[in-house]
Amino acid sequence: MTVREIGLAFFAALSISVLVTPFSRRIALRYGLVDRPHGRKRHLMTTPLLGGVAIYLAFGITVLAGMLFLIGDSSMIAIGWKSLCIMIIIGAGLMTVVGLVDDILSLSPLIKLMLHTIAAILVSIIFITRGALLSVFLTGSSLAWLTVPLTVIWLVGITNSVNLLDHADGLSAGTCAIAAIFFSILNLLSGNLSIAFISAALAGATIGFFFYNYNPASIFMGDSGSNMLGFMLGIIAVLGVYTSEGSIREIAVFTPVLILALPIIDTVFVLRFRRKNGKSLFTADRNHLAHRLMRLGLSHNQSVIVLLVVAALMGTLALLLPTLKPYQAILLFVHALGLVGLFSFFINRAETRETKE
Q1: Are 164 and 287 in contact (CB under 8 A)?
Q2: In a 3-state reduction of DSSP, which class is residue 288?
Q3: Alpha-carbon span 322 to 344, nearest angstrom
Q4: Fewer CB within 10 Å, N or C, the chain?
Q5: Average confidence (pLDDT) per 10 residues, the chain, 357 residues
Q6: What does DSSP assign to residue 41?
Q7: What is the pLDDT of residue 46?
Q8: Distance CA 329, CA 326 (A)
Q9: Long-range contacts of 281-284 (CB under 8 A, 24+ apart)
C-alpha cells in the first residue's frame, strides 16, 4: 500500500458520496423518510434523511475495493488487512442499520441511547476479541484487564458524542471529516498505512456528503450517519499509531482525545447544563455549543465555522504531539484543556449576562 493509493481512497470515496447522496435524497423523499420541523427542530423545511446511508455506501465500497485490489500493511496492528476490512464494513453497516431504525421509528431519547449503546457494545466486543484495544498506561500491570471495559466505554462514548453533535447543518459531518483527515495524516506519518487508508476513505465519504449538508442542508445524515461515523472514528482512534515506534503511551492517549475534542466538549457541556438545571440527561434541548453561539448573535454558518476551526486547531495540536517528549506532550495537552475551558467559560458567561440584560 502506498501514499498514492491512500489518496485514491480519499477521492474515490468522495466521488461516490457526491454521486450517491442525491439518490439517497430522492429515495428518502419518495418513501417519506424525512425530518419535519417541530419543537426544538427549527430547520425551515422538511428535510430528507438517509444521508448516513450514502456515507456508508461510499465508505464501504471504497474499503471493499481496497480489500479486493490492494495488499494492506497490517504490521502495526493486531488485525490482518482483509479481516480488518470485513470487520469495518460489517461493523459500520450494523451501526448504520441501528441508526436507520431510529430515523424511521423516531424513538425516544432514552430508548435511542440504550439501542445505540447496546449495538456499540456488541460491535466493540467483536473488535476487542480481535485485538482492537485502547492503548493506555495499564499494559503489563495487574490492572491490564481494565483496557477492555475502557475500550468499550470509549467507543460507546464517542459514538454517542458524535450523535449529540449532529444538531446544526454541516457541524457533525465537518467535524468528523476533519477528525478523519488528521487520523489519516498521523497514521500515514507513523507508517500505519491500513488505518491511514480507512481514515482517508471515511474522510472522503463524509466530505462528499458535507457538500449537501452544509446550511441550508438539502439532506441530513440522521442517526444512521452519526452512529456509523462516531463508532468508526472511535475504532480508528483505538487502532491508530501516533508515533513512528508506537511506544509513547502518553501520546497514544492524548492524540485521539485532541482530534475528537469537539464532540467530547459538546457532550460534557450539554450534560453538565442538564444536570445543573435538574433536567433529564436524555432530554434533547437547544443548549449545545452551536446553539449558544447562535444565541450570542452569530449566524448558523458562522457558529458552525467557529466550531470547525476549533476542531481543526485541536487536530493541529495533535499533529505536534509525535514531535514532543512525554513531559512536553503532557504540557501541551494541559494547555489545550485550559484553552477549551476558557472557550466554554466565556460562551457560558456571555450567554448568562445576555439573558440577565
Answers
A1: no
A2: coil
A3: 27
A4: C
A5: 90 95 90 70 67 94 92 75 90 89 80 80 79 60 68 86 86 94 91 91 96 88 90 88 57 82 86 72 69 81 91 89 76 81 70 52
A6: B
A7: 73
A8: 5
A9: 282/108, 282/109, 282/110, 282/113, 283/109, 284/40, 284/109
Cell triple for 236: 480508528
Q: Where are the domains of the chain?
A: 3-356
Distances (CA, A) of 79 to 84, 87, 233, 254, 327: 6, 10, 17, 23, 31
Q: What is the pTM of this model?
A: 0.88
Quote the CA–CA distance of 94 and 188 in Å, as a whole number: 28
**Do 209 and 225 contact (CB within 8 A), yes or no?**
yes
- Grid coordinates belonging to 308: 470547525
Which set of grid coordinates corresponds to residue 274?
442538564
**Residue in this structure with the C-alpha cell 456508508, named with its chain if needed:** 56
Cell numbers found for residue 344: 466554554
Q: Please report where in the chains the cell 417519506 appears, as a residue.
A: 32
